[in-house]
Write a sequence for this structure.
């Protein structure tokens, strides 16, 4: 799987996704539904590009990364 450490590319892509998320919320979509669909779309694209095994390995790393706060956008 590719290196996703380029902060400029990653920041721009994240902003585009968050903008689409906000638009979906504004049009009445529920946050849980948006999240589920976004995860599905991302994983389906990754499987198409890298294959099931690579994506399964990536997914196996998610619990620990989440526990470390890697996906936390809001700071309390």
């Amino acid at each position: 799987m590719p290196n996703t450490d380029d902060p400029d590319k990653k920041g721009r892509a994240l902003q585009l996704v968050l903008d689409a998320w906000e638009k979906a919320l504004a049009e009445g979509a529920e946050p849980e539904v948006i999240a589920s669909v976004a995860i599905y779309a991302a994983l389906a694209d990754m499987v198409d590009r890298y294959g099931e095994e690579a994506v399964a390995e990536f997914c196996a790393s998610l619990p620990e990364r989440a526990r470390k706060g890697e996906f936390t956008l809001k700071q309390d």
Remarks:
- Residues 7-26 form the longest helix (20 residues).
- The chain has a mean pLDDT of 93.
- The radius of gyration is 14 Å.
